[in-house]
Amino acid sequence: MERFSRIIGTDFSYHLIDEPAGFTFCPRSWPGDDPVGQPMTDFTLSILLTMCRTNFGHELNATELELRRPLPANPAPWQDFFGCEVNFGAERDSFLLNRETVDMPLPSANIPLANTFDSILAEQMASSSTATCSAAARRICYANSTSGTPSAQELASALGMSQRSFQRKLGRTGPDLPKVLDETRHELARRYLDDQSKSVTEIAFLLGFSEQSAFTRAFRHWSGMSPSVYRGERLA
């Protein structure tokens, strides 16, 4: 939702926050006191949790729900649907999923299919008129992962613009280039490690590292653990 919502439109945006207690999902754009925005927020959060339940299991509940709307006469429908206490009159609209739940493998997971869909959506987003430079950089990094991390000049050339224009536009629309590329390689590494058919050495090659030890150092930097430990914890 956070990454690919621009394919649908630019009226709304979403943000996923990695916090000590877990992951918080926040829709952004609607005023908290807007009579239309309030039900739209309810709809967005409820449909997303429904999608999560479809993949994870219907026993999934939020750990915490925050809503900017004032306390209603009957808060039971919100408590019953989200399965948690609701903090009305909060500073933001969000729900929290605890870390233990988020880290559990999905029963419906299909990593090759997920990678295929990611590539299709990244291509579509990068080719749309509303695409950001950071999204385009991610797409190019996905498509050319075995060649290593592309330079700013290579990315600018691939997008048909000067390096100065690329850097300027990137600065307006997203995080800096090293962070974008680092996050993309980390995400690809985790996806590859979830695929038990790929060895750590093969994954290092797929990500453009010259040797396995270089990949191991990079993965420790990203996650605080070695690729083998990460894979073992996922299996456990």
Spell out the blueprint of helices and strands.
Blueprint (H helix, E strand, L loop, with lengths): L4 H4 L4 E7 L2 E7 L8 H20 L7 E4 L8 H7 L3 E3 L5 E5 H4 L8 H17 L5 H11 L8 H7 L4 H11 L3 H18 L5 H7 L5 H12 L3 H9 L1
Helix pairs in contact: 5-6, 6-9, 7-8, 10-11
In short:
The protein is α+β, with helices and mostly antiparallel strands and 236 residues long.
Describe this structure in words.
The chain has 236 residues and is α+β, with helices and mostly antiparallel strands. The protein has two domains: 5-102, no CATH class; 111-235, Orthogonal Bundle (Arc Repressor Mutant, subunit A), CATH 1.10.10. Helix content is 54%, strand content 11%. It contains twelve helices and five strands. Strand 3 (64-67), helix 3 (76-82) and strand 4 (86-88) form a beta-alpha-beta unit. The longest helix has 20 residues, at 37-56. The radius of gyration is 20 Å and the shape is globular. The model has no long low-confidence stretch (mean pLDDT 81).
